[in-house]
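TICKET #2291
ISSUE: user wants both folds in one file
ATTACHMENT 1:
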Amino acid sequence: MYGGSGVLAIEAVSRGAMRATVFDRDPKAVRQCMALVERLGLRGQIRVRKGTVPKCLPTGSRFDLIFMDPPYALEPLKVLELLAPMCAGVLVLEHRDEAPEPKGLMLVDSRQYGDTTLSFYRETAALQSS
């Protein structure tokens, strides 16, 4: 989510992810990401989608890993709650403020790097069934 250049998706694929999808609303970022994916020969593994969150979210999809790096000024709670049913594994949120507590997701870890925090969530239903 908020994929920008797509380098995190490229990194994921280079480390063994079978597929990745990058979402961003900025046409320039989407064009640059698509060009980079093409140049690296990864079109079959990385999809790039233009659109605003949450409108661009694919309904009925499930993802093993969701990495969300929204602009820090954005309040991510609503988007996290929309992503909860799509989370088949881990959702990672990059943020500065206190970690939100979205319905459907449970905070399982948090790591601070300077003024940036990475919060790791799992789907609540998956945690209750294990």
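ATTACHMENT 2:
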Amino acid sequence: MNIDRDAYWFGMAAHVATRATCPRASIGAVLVKFDRIISCGFNGAPERQPHCPNTPEHLAIDHCRISRHAEDNALRNALLPAYGATLYVVGGRTVCPDCSDKLRQAGVTDIRWRVSVPTLDSVLSEVVAWQRTTFPVGTLAGAVEHLRREAEELAGNPTSESELADVQILLAQVAARQGVSLVDAVIRKMLVNRARQWQEPDEHGVVEHVREGLAS
């Protein structure tokens, strides 16, 4: 499924932010022009300069003057003139006044910022934390039974976004109660699935794998 352009570029900026070296915040910036990335940048010390100290004093300051900001680095790294480009920024702070001035002088006036780009994994982690607080006496058996009921409701209303979300939420709870990573479990299972042979769809459109001993 294709995602919209904004979501795509914000996702790229979030990925760039993982390269940040300042312990105060991880910021990523992507400059887009003609629907192409012309530059990216993250916050970090200038080349050959020492990184920001990971100390309580540095973490407490309002504005880091050691690191070069992600937006500034994106401007410096641009492969084309930035005039008319759109800047996508992801991180725990908005664009500072100094960077705003530099961007405006470079002709970048379309600045789009998000504090973060949620992933399914991060959303489900928050769901599991909420479940543990809200249902502290819940059991694995209870979660599995609840999941079965929600799956039946989804089968009865397969186009319902709400029912689909309920199944995902309960699935996350079942996995958490077993200490299982859904991501790791799916990766391992797909290794198995890719090695299997698959039958033709049955009368309900269900495709099952060839059972051991039945393969030709």
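RESOLUTION: both attachments delivered.
EXTRA DETAIL ON ATTACHMENT 2: Helices lie at 5-17, 56-60, 70-76, 97-105, 120-134, 140-156, 161-178, 182-194.
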